[in-house]
Amino acid sequence: MSEPRWLTETQMRAWTGFLETSGLIQRHVERQLRDAGLTMVQYEILHWANECAPRRRCITELADLMITSRSGLSYQVAQLEKAGLLRRETDADDERRAMVVITEDGRRLLEKTAPGHVAAVRDGLIDLLTDEQVAQLADIMDGVRTRLRPRVLSTGSRRRAT
């Protein structure tokens, strides 16, 4: 058995800093969304449902975008459906496909919540960095996401706490 490639001190600092910082940013943003009556996952579902035309998205595609299980997503969709923010429909082209459609109430809540959400994202990350650092971070995240997404989705391990 080969020896593990242990992290250097700088690599460990980068890893633990990433973990702590991402957790802090997530809690910071969640606090703002909680005031609007949404969880971060629910906000993300509404965002992705609203971002596609004609504001309807296949639930399997949504699970892939959010890197979560379809069952976990279905629970959150059901909560949003009960609140009148989303509705489920059968795809007219393929009745086996379940679609989520953002309602007018969902769209209005998203529009009402978005300014506070953006302010929390700015306050917790973007405005703490220079423009150059933001561009570097965007490039780093693009590269990591591009390499990691196919690996994660191909293994079938799309689970995420929802």
Your description of this structure?
This protein has 162 residues and is mainly alpha-helical. It has 2 domains: 30-116, Winged helix-like DNA-binding domain superfamily/Winged helix DNA-binding domain (Arc Repressor Mutant, subunit A, Orthogonal Bundle), CATH 1.10.10; 125-155. It is built from 6 helices and 3 strands, in the order H-H-E-H-H-E-E-H-H. It has helices at 9-35, 40-51, 59-66, 70-82, 104-124, 131-154; strands spanning 56-58, 86-90, 98-102. It has a 3-stranded antiparallel β-sheet with strand order 1-3-2. Strand 2 and strand 3 (98-102) form a beta hairpin. Helix 1 crosses helix 5 (104-124). The longest helix has 27 residues, at 9-35.
What is this entry, summarized?
The chain is 65% helix and 8% strand.
What ranges have pLDDT less than 50 throughout 5 or more consecutive residues?
157-162
CATH class of the largest domain: Mainly Alpha
Terminal residue distance: 37 Å
Please give the domain count.
2
Helix content: 55-70%
Order of SSEs, N→C?
HHEHHEEHH
Tertiary shape:
globular
The count of β-strands is 3
Strand proportion: 5-15%
Compute the average pLDDT: 90
**How is the largest sheet built, in terms of strand order?**
1-3-2
**Number of helices, where a helix is a run of at least 4 consecutive DSSP H or I residues:** 6
CATH architecture of the largest domain: Orthogonal Bundle
CATH topology of the largest domain: Arc Repressor Mutant, subunit A
State the fourth-level CATH superfamily of the largest domain.
Answer: Winged helix-like DNA-binding domain superfamily/Winged helix DNA-binding domain
Largest sheet: 3 strands, antiparallel
